[in-house]
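thought: user wants a sequence for this fold. calling inverse folding tool.
action: design(structure=
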């Protein structure tokens, strides 16, 4: 069973993108669009204080008619952030995300953010695991 450690090792970049709570939502969304990502960690120095996702933007800016250039990230970020460790399995994390209705999961070790995985990263890993099991079973059945 593959772990989050494997996913982080296989990612194209180990860059962890973040914004400060006092930045404007416009600055954050502009960065997300530039990087083609769906969420940013919200950090005060080395401390994870929240996460800002496309859903936060849609629900708390667009649907409420607020202006992103006049709103600070800290006003709309999700403050209660679930986290994973590198030793958790992809399936366990998928379960967390499915039950919690979120798509991005920060990875924290010893109080320090070491990565971020998306539901897409996890699905790819689970599919690869299942394909390996299927191939093994096919080899067993066909001899």
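)
observation: tool returned 143 residues.
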């Amino acid at each position: 069973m593959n772990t989050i450690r494997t996913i982080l090792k296989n990612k194209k970049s180990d860059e962890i993108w973040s914004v400060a709570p006092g930045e404007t939502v416009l600055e954050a969304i502009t960065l997300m669009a530039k990087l083609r990502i769906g969420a940013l960690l919200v950090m005060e120095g080395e401390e994870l204080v929240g996460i800002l996702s496309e859903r936060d933007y849609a629900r708390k800016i667009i649907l409420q008619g607020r202006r992103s250039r006049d709103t600070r990230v800290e006003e709309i970020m999700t403050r209660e952030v679930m986290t994973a460790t590198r030793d958790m399995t992809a399936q366990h994390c998928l379960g967390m995300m499915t039950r919690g209705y979120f798509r991005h999961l920060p990875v924290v070790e010893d109080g320090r953010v070491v990565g971020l995985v998306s539901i897409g990263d996890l699905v790819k890993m689970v599919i690869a695991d299942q394909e390996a099991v299927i191939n093994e079973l096919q080899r067993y059945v066909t001899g």
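thought: summarizing for user.
answer: Here is the designed sequence. The first helix runs from residue 4 to 10.
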